[in-house]
Design a protein that fits this description.
The chain has a five-stranded mixed β-sheet with strand order 9-8-12-10-11. The protein is an alpha+beta fold and about 260 residues long. A hairpin with a 3-residue loop joins strand 5 and strand 6. The chain contains seven helices and twelve strands. The radius of gyration is 28 Å and the shape is elongated. Among the domains are: about 90 residues, 2-Layer Sandwich (wza like fold); about 80 residues, Outer membrane lipoprotein wza fold like.
């Protein structure tokens, strides 16, 4: 059998291997992380409260009557349109952080909370209750009720997502959105963050382990993540399937022609 013909059998396999290699480099996350390597980063304490946050603050102790003045009343909500189908649930009211960063807290009145983390505010209220001899053994629980992030662009399920707790990473948010589509630009993801009326923009490369050192690796409330489209997506909108197929056939034909010329020498 002719050596050239034998060599030609491997051309399609070679093409597939080249395409596969390039695709992997474009789509694999944290691809430069070495096996067993460690990367130290500052431990995030949690989001800091800002205007328009809604907070849940519950004070409890061994004598509930002493803590009662410091708690908002529970409200009853109903789901369903008929008495038979309606389900009942109790939720606590929240404290809205005003534009000056304050909340109106029972008994204490106006309290500055902007800039505090959840644990810091809980400890501050606990110590004040003890110091002023209001509640001898208080347990203070603070939660943010409207922690949301938005993920838009080339992801499987774009939308706005409510976060339980006070911590979510960029990768976790993308996971909530169903991960990037094959056309998502992993090398250039944009995060918009607004604070004090000023919007800041950060760009990150999901393929690099340096992502974990980015200031937007841990998202904050109301962050917006936008995943742009690759050039392939733009090209797809301009050409039809027949032209796309023709391009690949032309490329394959070119590679075969080049191989024949090289092997014939």
């Amino acid at each position: 059998m002719c050596p050239i013909k034998n060599s030609l059998k491997f051309i399609p396999l070679l093409c597939c291997m080249l395409v596969s290699c390039q695709t992997s480099k474009k789509t694999t996350y944290l691809q430069d992380a070495a096996e067993g390597s460690t990367h130290k980063r500052e431990i995030k304490q949690g989001v800091r409260f800002q205007p328009n946050d809604m907070l849940s603050i519950i004070v409890s102790c061994r004598r509930p009557e002493m803590a009662a003045p410091f708690n908002l009343p529970f409200v009853t909500t109903y789901a369903g349109t008929s008495t038979l189908l309606a389900s009942e649930a109790q939720t606590t009211l929240g404290y809205l952080v005003d534009m000056e960063g304050n909340i109106e807290f029972p008994v204490f009145g106006k309290i500055k909370v902007a800039g505090f983390t959840r644990t810091q505010l809980a400890e501050e209220l606990k110590q004040r209750l003890i110091r002023e001899d209001r509640v001898p053994d208080p347990i203070v629980t603070v939660e943010i009720m409207n922690f949301q992030v938005s993920v838009l662009g080339e992801v499987m399920a774009p939308g706005t997502f409510t976060v339980a707790g006070d911590r979510i990473t960029l990768l976790q948010a993308l996971g909530k959105a169903g991960d990037l589509t094959i056309y998502g630009k992993r090398s250039d993801v944009l995060v918009q963050r607004e604070a004090n009326g000023i919007a800041a923009y950060h760009r990150v490369d999901l393929r690099s382990v340096d992502l974990i050192h980015s200031p937007v690796y841990y998202l904050q409330q109301n962050d917006v993540v936008y995943v742009g489209a690759t050039n392939a997506r733009a090209a797809q909108s301009k050409i039809n399937e027949n032209r796309s197929l023709g391009m690949w056939l032309s490329l394959t034909s070119l590679l075969i022609s080049l191989s024949v010329i090289v092997l014939s020498k």
